[in-house]
Amino acid sequence: MQTELSQKLGVEHAVFGFTPFPAVAAAISRAGGFGVLGAVRYTDPDELKRDLDWVEAHVDGRPYGLDVVMPAKKVEAPNNRTLTEADVEAMIPEGHRQFVRDTLAKHGVPGLAEGEASGWRITGWMEQVARTQLDVAFDYPIRLLANALGSPPPDVVARAHDQDVLVAALAGSARHARKHKEAGIDIVVAQGYEAGGHTGEIASMVLTPEVVDAVAPLPVLAAGGIGSGQQVAAALTLGAQGVWLGSLWLTTTEADLHSPALTRKLLAAGSGDTVRSRALTGKPARQLRTEWTDAWDDPAGPGTLPMPLQGLLVAEAVSRIQKYEVEPLLGTPVGQIVGRMNSERSVQAVFDDLTRGFEQAVDRVNRIAGRSGPS
User: Is the per-residue pLDDT at 245 higher than 60?
Assistant: First the structure.
């Protein structure tokens, strides 16, 4: 599964694996792919440094990257001040806070212990937090910096290029992809409707070739609805130079979800058990459909708030739901490929399956084309 881009980065397989778990990122790189560690949960730079130290020590010298979240549009503080977490908290209406309390009470969700801090904060959606993450990351030999919400600011792109780091950005339409190209982005990730997390409204089969044509000759990675080697082959046939996989790693043995109940839900879920909802961050994000997402998507409710207000509003609630494994409310961002995630496997086993399926797909196409053997 090699392409010009994978050869440029020195990886065996053109499989880019996004994950919030350092052990998974390292295992992806060791298996011959390109591991990308998600940084959004690191509000403490020292914690990010600790985990990058661990990744660096466990990739066996192979390349890896970092994914940050720097929203293209952000909530501004009064008088053009730098937006702080306190500023954001002050913007959250009391009615929305009461809705959270009522929903948790309806399901009997216990509170956190006195003095126990929420373990889930989305301050990482704020630009100044992402910049502290970059200050740490650029001290490491990362080969790729990806941004999940549009092109990074020009100074960030320039800083990455000065350090010989490629920059990738996700796009849900050809129009967005062209903007990335104009901004000097090196790689565009065409993220289809099927993908987990923040995603647009165009399916991968339509989106991938549109983006390939829109940004040529920039390399494109296909994302969304890809979880088999046959689907990898399809993506490359559509013109992509690799695939960007995220959901598939959630049920690997190296992943650390800290929730047996959530793992069971993922393994049992079908491809129709996800929904694009603003419940988690304020932007449409595909995730498991739960009674929590249903409550926020109900027209009778107060509606969600814009990013980053929604993320801060629900942070403690999500921590409580996860800690006490309240199954009707328990969910996570995940794509429609969850329907194929029905067993726990190692990252290496996932790669073995991907390469085997890829070879089968190539052989099938060759037979259809009246040729024999791999091209």
Answer: yes
Q: How confident is the model at residue 274 (pLDDT cuts 50, 70, 90)?
A: very high
As a whole number of angstroms, the distance between CA 15 and CA 33 comes to: 5
pLDDT tens per residue, range 70-113: 765 555 555 555 666 677 788 899 999 999 999 999 999 999 88
- Model's pTM, two decimal places? 0.91
Whether 179 is in a domain gets the answer yes
160 and 58 in one domain?
yes
* Cα of 351 vs its chain's centroid, Å: 19
The amino acid at residue 115 is G
What is the count of structural domains for the chain? 2
Question: What residue numbers bound the domain in which 206 lies?
Answer: 4-74+126-250
Any idea which residue has 């940004």 for tokens?
215
- Same domain? For 263 and 137 the reply is no
Q: Give the per-residue pLDDT at 128.
A: 76
Position 237 in a domain:
yes
**Got the DSSP string for 66-88?**
EEE---SS-PPPGGGPPP-HHHH
The residues facing 285 across adjacent strands are 198, 277
